[in-house]
Amino acid sequence: APAGAAMRTEISTAAAFVTRLLRAAGGIGEEQLRCFRECLQEALREHYKHHWFPLVPSKGSGYRCIRINHKMDPLIGKAAGMIGLSHERLFQLLPSELTLWVDPFEVSYRIGEDGSICVLYENPQPGGKATKPLESRTSCKEEWRIGRSSPSKNYNMMTVSS
């Protein structure tokens, strides 16, 4: 299968996650969110095209990593620009520190530089050995929901100190 087909689940998982963060922040219409998600998927597909190695999933992981660390990830920035969201507005809507790893068979994220890593999508590698047990890593999905409902204090501290 062409890489594009192989990457589809991972890319749509990643794009849907960022879209969900924007939706949770509020104030953006569904039509805009849909457009954002499609633009981001397209940008990721293009960006990952020659950097997807299902046989060596960790290869190119740094290149594929989506990252906001007081600098906006260019791919998120580009998709947001398509629906008229400025980088400043994105920083208000999204965590100031977010890392999203999009690798073959696994998509995971971390909010905050020392937050726990949460898995969004995991698929055992065909013919590969089972990956690490999931039990220890699923609890943070709940944490994310709870964490979003109250504005987290450490983000404010982070931005002030920089």
From TrEMBL:
Domain Anti-proliferative protein residue range list: 94-113
Superkingdom assignment: Eukaryota
Pfam family, any one: BTG
GO biological process: negative regulation of cell population proliferation
Positions in coiled-coil regions: none
UniProt xrefs under InterPro entries: Anti_prolifrtn, BTG, BTG-like_sf
Cellular component GO terms held in the UniProt record: cytoplasm; nucleus
Homology family: Belongs to the BTG family.
Name of the protein described by the UniProt record: BTG1 protein
Species of provenance: Tricholaema leucomelas (pied barbet)
